[in-house]
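User: Some background: our group keeps a shared notebook of sequences we're curious about, and every so often someone picks one and asks for a predicted structure to add to the entry. Today it's my turn. The entry only has the sequence so far, pasted here. Could you supply the structure so I can complete it?
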Amino acid sequence: MAEWQLIETQPSDEFAQLHWFSLKRYQGDQAVEFRIAVYEYASRNKLSMRFFAQADKQVNQKTAPFIPFGWGPTLLEALSECVKSIYRFPYEGE
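Assistant: Of course. Here's the predicted structure to add to the notebook entry:
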């Protein structure tokens, strides 16, 4: 257990450390930067997941807007699921 996790006194507080990542998705000659925040929770949720990743932009904006995300028991798994979600639908913004 990391030292910072000892600060959490109530699991309902969802105390978390943030990890930041950046990804450039190219559509034609346009580069779209996605910033991904991965939350590392001090306590696991009911599904035993500790990591939640979420992008800062929506995809599929014109049909059914969707914010890419991913859950996982490891940082790598949550981040990987989020990146897959970014590529699953077209970016239709700007």
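Suggested note for the entry: The longest helix spans residues 75-88. The beta strands are 16-27, 30-41, 51-55, 69-72.
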